[in-house]
């Protein structure tokens, strides 16, 4: 499994210098595009199960010296790969495309009705945000001091994380993934869902 973007530094549209029309309450809200590639033979070796769902988190660990915690910019769970466009589909690999502004596309597409977005750090009691446009949708990088390294982490599973609902927290996502992985490893669990793969990608956000 491999995450790819066409950039290493976050483009202006998705970050601090986004135009006014791409911001809500001064926060950039248009999410960036990326792809997730799977080697078909690798999946076959790992498990008889198929990749059916993607889940991801976009966070900023470099915010810890600034505010005391890793800033949550975007979390998404239960994206069915069947609802995503596929490029490079061959006997060797499949490349699933997450398009620009997917954070808002989720809200309007029937095929994505089971997808849930989690809370961002704007919803933290230390920030006090209340508008779902920024508390439960993508927030672009806005480092206040120096350039930050942001991390996009994507996980693939064969079953949805049914315990997650709109407005979940990042720790609930990681716990659900861990439980599904443990269930898939247990022959006695009677649970068919399996945690199949994960990857992470560093993206630079300019101050």
TrEMBL record:
InterPro entries: PEBP, PEBP-like_sf, YbhB_YbcL/LppC-like. It comes from the Bacteria. Transmembrane segments: none annotated. It holds the Pfam family PBP. SUPFAM superfamilies: PEBP-like. Gene3D superfamilies: PEBP-like. Belongs to the UPF0098 family. This is Phospholipid-binding protein. It comes from Galliscardovia ingluviei.
């Amino acid at each position: 499994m491999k995450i790819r973007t066409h950039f290493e530094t976050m483009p202006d549209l998705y970050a601090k210098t986004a135009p006014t029309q791409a911001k809500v309450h001064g926060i950039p809200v248009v999410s960036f595009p990326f792809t997730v590639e799977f080697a078909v033979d690798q999946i076959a070796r790992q498990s008889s199960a198929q990749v059916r769902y993607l889940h991801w988190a976009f966070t900023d660990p470099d915010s810890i010296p600034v505010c005391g915690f890793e800033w949550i910019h975007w979390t998404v769970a239960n994206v069915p790969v069947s609802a995503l466009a596929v490029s490079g589909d061959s006997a060797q690999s499949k490349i699933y495309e997450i398009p620009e502004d997917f954070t808002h596309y989720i809200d309007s597409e029937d095929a994505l009705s089971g997808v849930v977005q989690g809370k961002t750090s704007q919803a933290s009691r230390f920030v006090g945000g209340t508008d779902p446009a920024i508390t439960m949708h993508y927030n672009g990088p806005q480092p206040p001091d120096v350039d930050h390294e942001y991390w996009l982490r994507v996980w693939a599973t064969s079953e949805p994380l049914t315990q997650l609902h709109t407005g979940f927290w990042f720790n609930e996502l990681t716990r659900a993934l861990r439980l599904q992985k443990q269930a898939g490893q247990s022959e006695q669990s009677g649970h068919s869902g399996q945690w199949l793969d994960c990857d992470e990608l560093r993206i630079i956000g300019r101050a």
